[in-house]
Amino acid sequence: DEEISADVEKVEEQEEVGNLEMACRRVLQEVQEVLELARLGWSKMSKSSTGDMKKEVDANLAEVHLALGEVAMASSNYSQAQEDFQACITLKKSVLPAEARSLAESFYQLAVSQAMSGKSPESEASLTAAISVLEVRAKNHVEESEELGEVVAVIREGLGEVVAEIREELEEHKVMQKEGTHYGAGGRSEEHTSEL
Question: Residue 70 contacts by C-beta under 8 Å, 6 or more apart in sequence?
Fold first, then answer.
């Protein structure tokens, strides 16, 4: 009687998990459709805009591509994520300063998507680009430090820690490439994103 009861519970749990997974896939599909509409709208506006308005529109379009990349990552569609993150980076480079933190974050997201699909050399290049952005940011903060004092020192210290962590991941990529492995679904690849 207890075995039957345990088996019934297992089946019910499996059905519940299956229903939850289906619901998540549906939600991701709906989010993707809304973001695609936003992408089309912002793209159309970008083509007809000029000057400061174009910069603002392109900044919004970059954020839509970033969100599309994140949805693709959640759906394990890494090649689509890479396309969207690359489009995001291209747009951000045209509207943001070279040291923009969000540019470093986008390079990092691109690196994660590349690592998840086993593209270690490309992932290393993207991590290196993220480090370069952060180094420019840290250098610029050093130049401003006389004006802003302790606040900048704290920011620089935090940036230094993030750069060190990204470099550590870069070394892990090199080791994984030598071993012929890459990040799986449970890799540590996402843990630093919020720290950038």
Answer: 81, 109
